[in-house]
Amino acid sequence: xxxxxxxxxxxxxxxxxxxxxxxxxxxxxxxxxxxxxxxxxxxxxxxxxxxxxxxxxxxxxxxxxxxxxxxxxxxxxxxxxxxxxxxxxxxxxxxxxxxxxxxxxxxxxxxxxxxxxxxxxxxxxxxxxxxxxxxxxxxxxxxxxxxxxxxxxxxxxxxxxxxxxxxxxxxxxxxxxxxxxxxxxxxxxxxxxxxxxxxxxxxxxxxxxxxxxxxx
Length: 216
Prior knowledge:
Blueprint: H1 2-27, E1 31-33, E2 45-48, E3 53-56, E4 61-62, E5 69-73, E6 78-81, E7 86-88, E8 94-98, E9 103-106, E10 111-113, E11 116-119, E12 122-125, E13 130-131, E14 136-138, E15 156-158, E16 163-164, E17 169-170, E18 175-176, E19 181-182, E20 187-188, E21 196-199, E22 204-208
Parallel strand pairs: 1-3, 2-5, 3-6, 4-7, 5-8, 6-9, 7-10, 8-11, 9-12, 10-13, 11-14, 12-15, 13-16, 14-17, 15-18, 16-19, 17-20, 19-21
Antiparallel strand pairs: 21-22
């Protein structure tokens, strides 16, 4: 009897969240959430400016923590999060900021865990990319340094099967090659070749990494 009551409660919550998702889609014409994505996405916070587009693919999941998952998209911004990506907010919020006209793409089977992504031009994460808690990825300096040195913006690319551990900062113009691992609290200022173990401030290649496609 107790199990039946619990199942009934869960079904009621899911039904309520489906209604909320339909209301969100009506409020934000650029929001597209696949029917097979988690209904918990109704608890996220969405700010989409005119012309912005946010697509969440089938099997994208998150926890039902109100406001812990935050999307802020400027005019004309384009965001796509592919299927089976886990946006984990139990440890810390996930904040995704995509400025006017910028693009953010996250490949399938990825895992974002309490991190911060900011795109002013383009930020791309490949298939099964992992980003750990407290980590931050920026494709811009965020502000002008002074009157003679304006803000610089350069795309960031994170390859397939890359693991960025906790409290890592990745700055503009960086490419991290596939199957690489970036150690905790690293500062990544330059490109990291594929199959590299890198860490430090600034991050340097310290070893090699094999095939990560079958790791858990």
